Request: fold
Amino acid sequence: MNFNFSEEQQQFRDSLERYLREAYDFDSRRRILKSEAGYNREVWQQLAEMGALAIALPEAYGGFGGNAFDTGLVMEAFGRSLVVEPYLSTVVLGAGLIADAGSDAQKADVLDAVASGERLLALAHGEAGGRYALSHVTTTAQKDGDYWVLDGSKAVVLHGGAADQLIVSARTAGAARDAQGISLFLVDASAAGVTRRSYPTQDGGRAADITLAKVRVADSARIGAEGAALALLEKAIDRAIAALCAEAVGAMSATIEQTVNYLKTRKQFGVPIGSFQALQHRAVEMYLHAEQARSMSWLAAAKLDAPRDERRHAVSAAKLLVAQSARYVGQQAVQLHGGIGVTDELAVSHYFKRLTMISLLFGDVDHHLALFGECMAA
Reply:
């Protein structure tokens, strides 16, 4: 398989990285983190104008028809600059689900608005006690004529506080962890009965806990077939994991660059500490871990359209290795910077926080090790 980028992809990546270097420096990011929204609307609109929001969406609905590698280009650039804008929640998860299973009317209404930067989405699926089990859904949807009535609570919904619309998973049949009986609904975040509590996360992002109390939505708001949403959720989460792996690669690359620059300038005993062979070896090990993670990130992207078992096998393998590499690179960077490596004023500490959160999102090492073992045994 050819992993070389086309000339168009290279030009897009260069322009995106150049924009982020100029408009999204560390101080600008820290100001965004202090805002109530947790993202910058002007930056979001600029990303839309550059085509970053539309690159992987269908051409028929305002997109450019790209693939997982195009999404990876965006996410890697975001990782390098620690971008906190809601790309993962809106484009990868939200728009991805609509593109996969939405009706023609839903696609026409939602995807063009996402591509132009006019609408934010959030996947409201996780629940307290669910851990990483995608089939754990206790929120209910009861049929009432041509409407559905939703009741339940969702936890840690990424950028749920800023979203204009929510994609809510609810059980239309079965028990709490049954594979069948889960449906998806497109719900306006301002609908009667929807309550949101937004808060910052440890890595500088935003999430929300959402309560749905007798929220009425039309049957036309249902996404995909009734009771068959688990397969859609699995594919959407696998797509998000592949995107996170690419983001982690970008964050690791930036972390290594900053650490090497520090080793070249920090002096001890009258010489740069980077001249010490032991520290050079540690820097090389960081680079090797990052390059292994890059290869696995590409593998995950390449397998997203493969059959379910093959896809999940590759995605879990990638998440495993990327999480281990992220932990190693982050820890080494902090240690090589000494005491200042954990201070809020130093970008390295922010990279380490984000890498740690990426390692936990959508399944930690133990979870994906178990999934990988199941795939091997199948």
Observations:
- The CA atoms of residues 27 and 345 lie 9 Å apart.
